[in-house]
Design brief:
The complex is a heterodimer. By secondary structure, chain A is α/β, with parallel strands linked by helices. Helices cover 32% and strands 26% of the residues of chain A. Chain A is built from 17 helices and 22 strands. Chain A is globular, with a radius of gyration of 25 Å. Chain B has a two-stranded antiparallel sheet. The longest helix of chain B is centred in the C-terminal third of the chain and has 33 residues. In chain B, a hairpin with a 2-residue loop joins strand 1 and strand 2. Chain B is mostly helical. Classes of the chains: A alpha/beta, B mainly alpha. Chains A and B meet through helix 10, helix 11, strand 18, helix 13 and helix 15 of A and helix 1, helix 10, helix 11 and helix 15 of B.
Chain lengths: 494, 342
């Protein structure tokens, strides 16, 4: 077989991290080529470079032997490279047909859209793909799976030669995923080359011809799927030195701090029970979308729960709002720092005091000196690098922003601290500091719950690990039993 | 990294001149400072050009002119800071005045009549707040609806006529003077100062900034967003009604058409004064300065005998210039940072 597209020596540096380090990819005509790796391995970065969303610092891309360098998604599309990103980009209120041909609507000589022609063209693409969706239906009425198919129809309507899919099945049920995968196989038979990013080993082994494994921004290998076993892939994905960025594990007291029983969320069929000891770090592992954050939200009172009891030190508590949770000494550090965590336009000082306004106030008025003192205390304790506590938070680096977000929760002097992806997108130095800080909290008896998609973080930090899959806790490992291999196996329900 | 931040902190403490310089650079960056400078410039310019600006008559006329608007500014600032706005203030302004005037004509005692007017404002604001938070209609539609309802109610109550024949004792608020200053100016000034201090310092009012700054983050920080918003719109309604009542006291008649277009003038003044339509930003005093700024430009045009028709046009230009400069200067401030990090 001949190579349709080759990428070689691709390097991309982001502030603080080397996202891709001399990575290569070789794509043959008509194959389904899976790209796999842990979070932060560089999969999405590589795809974005191929799709023209970002450009590489160095390296070459060849298409049919010709060097190419797409700098915008439009250029990539013109070269026949179409991409379906993880987040759907459809406009929900418009029809399927309008979504398939945005910017390329057939018009008459007065510039008016010829809807008949539009629907006919859309129908011909949809039937070519064997997709039973009415081109006149509005997208918001479709199931997520069908929306995903429309997205793909949109991608291939430009007669692309290469289709890049970034975790297309993450929002789909098993049945819907199977349909999508069968569809991809048909597409490949028609001669389209597919680059397929996924976390799900089962799917890769069902669908792909070859698989490329990335680890920490480096190329590990490309293999025929028929020649290797899932365990080999897992071993290639992991297998790294953890280094000393993780503090020593602690000794929990054995006193139960939190007990959650039969907690069930609306619109789910499963209920979960777990407990947390004083001074323990409990990890929640699982794929993105496995329901870990949703569980945390419900526990913290930020999302409704259907049923279940929560006991704190053996006493039943009712938590219906974050306010009540905070009063009980429960903090929740969100995974979405910018959208749900920080007040970006406000000062560092005001961000820290957001959870404890009453503590820095007297008779209903904020005491400026107390508020500044509080901020200074945490700036020093977490060694936040900033010129002033009056600085707007949006001007800080990611790591320092995360430290401010954490300060907000340390300020409530939590008994239980839930941290959701606590070190996502920050540099190694800040990561290490946050890890040590969390451990030192535990030494004072605080119970910490870490939700993380970075397995090394889970393994390096946690005394006990729970693994979630499709909303349910399906496995529990003690710190000693937990390995990347068996967590991945549980998380992908393999 | 640890030693770096410690160094910075200690350097700040050791150098005594730094705080002063910091303070001055901060001051220049503050929107209010630029506004005050512009206001002084325009005032001096008008004085030099006309020689009639710094006269008691003219200053009093200007101050009286925006006193009732200043009362509304507090409520509007809250609404803008919370991330919304209140289009109904102009109509509630009229309704508050009309209700109080009707009550006075029905021989209800003055304090009760005022209370009736304020209650109607409270009711309108509370309804806005409940619709925005519980039914989740957006602030634009909600307050636009209330704008129509309040205006219609004022017209219905008065059958479209102005209400006169009110007891003269009621006019003390709008017409009398205390220590040579109009009561109306004193009341407006008092509300602005109290409002500004509350917004800066009171922990309850600080929550409005958190809600406007990032609603989801505020919710997860334990702030009851719905309660904050309901309170904000309720207060906005009350202050709009109060302004209307004071206006009746000043002009001795209640006009159901009063305050038409007032909502947009106030929003413009607040935006010029540093509020952001995105929320989370703005001060009451800034809104007052915005009001004075716009007022001065209008006053200047009157002194310069510019035809009245040009005034609205100039107001629009001033709004766009002020906000445009601010947006651009912020982008310039941010630009080098963006380059560094990318």
């Amino acid at each position: 077989m001949t190579s349709l597209l080759t990428a070689s020596n691709i390097t991309k540096q982001f502030p603080g991290t080397l996202a891709l380090d001399n990575v290569q990819l070789d794509l043959q005509a008509g194959e389904i080529h899976a790209v796999i790796g842990e979070n932060g391995a560089g999969k999405s970065t590589l795809m974005k470079i191929l799709a023209g969303v970002i450009s590489a610092d160095s390296g070459q891309i060849h298409l049919n032997g010709e060097p190419i360098n797409p700098t915008t998604p439009g250029e990539a599309l013109a070269l026949g490279i179409a991409t379906v990103h993880q987040e759907l980009s459809l406009i929900p209120t418009l029809t399927v047909a309008e979504n398939i041909f945005p910017g390329r609507l057939p018009t008459n000589r007065f510039g008016m859209v010829r809807y008949g022609e539009l629907f006919k063209r859309a129908q011909s693409i949809l039937s070519k793909l064997n997709v039973a969706v009415d081109p006149r239906a509005s997208v918001e009425k479709l199931s997520i799976a069908n929306q995903q198919l429309v997205e793909i129809a949109k991608a291939i309507s430009s007669d692309c030669k290469i289709l890049i899919l970034d975790e297309p099945t993450s929002a789909l049920t098993d049945h819907e995923a199977d349909q999508l995968l069968a569809f991809l196989k048909r597409l490949a038979q028609d001669g389209v080359s597919i680059v397929y990013i996924s976390h799900k080993l089962k799917e890769i082994f069902m669908t792909a011809n070859r698989v490329t494994i990335l680890r920490d921004g480096k190329f590990v290998g490309t293999h025929q799927v028929s020649e290797i076993k899932p365990d080999d892939v897992i071993r290639m994905m992991v297998g790294r030195e953890l280094g000393n960025i993780y503090p020593d594990k602690g000794k929990e007291t054995g006193v139960t701090l939190l007990e959650v029983q039969d907690l069930r969320l609306p619109e789910t069929r499963v209920s979960n029970s777990f407990h947390l000891l004083e001074g323990e770090i409990l990890g929640f592992a699982g794929l993105i979308g496995s329901g870990r954050s949703e569980l945390a939200h419900a526990l913290f009172g930020a999302a409704p729960k259907l049923s279940g009891t929560i006991r704190l030190h053996g006493q039943e508590v009712h938590i219906h709002s974050p306010k009540q949770a905070i009063k009980l000494g429960i903090g929740y550090l969100t995974e979405d720092r910018k959208q749900a965590g920080l007040f970006l336009e406000m000062s560092l000082k005001q961000n820290v005091s957001a959870t404890v306004l009453n503590k820095v106030s007297q008779a209903g008025f904020v005491k400026p000196e107390r508020e500044r003192q509080l901020a200074r205390e945490y700036v020093q304790r977490l060694s936040v690098s900033t010129s002033s506590i009056e600085q707007e938070v949006r001007r800080l680096s990611g790591g320092n922003q995360q430290k401010i977000l954490l300060s907000k929760w340390l300020a409530i002097q939590p008994r239980i601290l839930i941290v959701d992806e606590p070190t996502r997108g920050i540099d190694v130095g800040a990561k290490k500091e946050i890890h040590h800080l969390l451990r030192s909290l535990c030494e004072k008896g605080v119970g910490v719950i870490i939700i993380s998609s970075e397995l090394p973080e889970i393994l390096g930090m946690c005394d006990r690990v729970l693994v979630m899959h499709e909303g349910a806790i399906i496995a529990e490992y003690s710190g000693r039993e937990a390995t990347e291999e068996n967590i991945i196996r549980s998380a992908s329900n393999h | 990294m640890a030693s770096e931040s410690v160094k910075k902190v200690s350097a700040q403490k050791n150098n005594m001149a730094r705080p002063l310089i910091n303070f001055l650079t901060q001051l220049v960056k503050v929107r209010e400072f630029a506004l005050v400078a512009m206001i002084i410039l325009i005032a001096v310019g008008l004085e030099l050009y006309t020689g009639r600006f710094f006269t008691t008559v003219n200053l009093n006329a200007i101050s009286l002119g925006f006193s009732t608007s200043a009362v509304i500014v507090f409520g509007m600032t809250m609404a803008l800071v919370s991330g919304g706005f209140d289009l109904s203030v102009g109509s509630v302004f009229a309704l508050g005045g009309v209700v109080t005037a009707s009550a006075l004509r029905a021989d209800i005692p003055i304090p009760l009549a005022i209370l009736a007017g304020l209650s109607v404002g409270l009711l309108a604001g509370l309804t806005n707040g409940l619709l925005i938070t519980k039914v989740k209609i957006n602030p634009f539609i909600t307050t636009l609806g209330m704008m129509g309802i309040a205006r219609g109610a004022s017209l219905a109550v008065t059958k479209g006529t102005t209400l006169a024949g009110l007891p003269p004792e009621f006019f003390v608020y709008g017409q009398n003077k205390t220590f040579d200053l109009f009561n109306l100016i004193i009341i407006a000034f008092f509300i602005i100062i109290v409002g500004d201090v509350l917004m800066r310092r009171a922990s309850a009012f600080r929550q409005i900034y958190y809600v406007g700054g990032n609603e989801e983050a505020a919710r997860l920080s334990g702030i009851n967003i719905d309660r904050v918003k309901i309170a904000v719109y309720t207060m906005s309604g009350i202050f709009a009604a109060l302004a209307g009542i004071l206006s009746v006291s000043r002009f001795t008649v209640a006009d159901p058409g009063a305050g038409t277009g007032e909502e947009l003038r106030i929003i413009a003044a607040c935006i010029i004064g540093g509020c952001s339509l995105q929320g989370g930003r703005g001060t009451v005093i800034g809104g007052l300065f915005g009001l004075i700024f716009v007022g001065l430009i209008n006053n200047g045009m009157i002194l310069l005998r510019v035809p009245v028709y040009w005034q609205q046009l100039s107001m629009g230009i001033v709004l766009l210039l002020a906000v445009g400069f601010d947006t651009l200067s912020q982008r310039w401030q941010l630009r080098p940072r963006v380059r560094q990090s990318s």
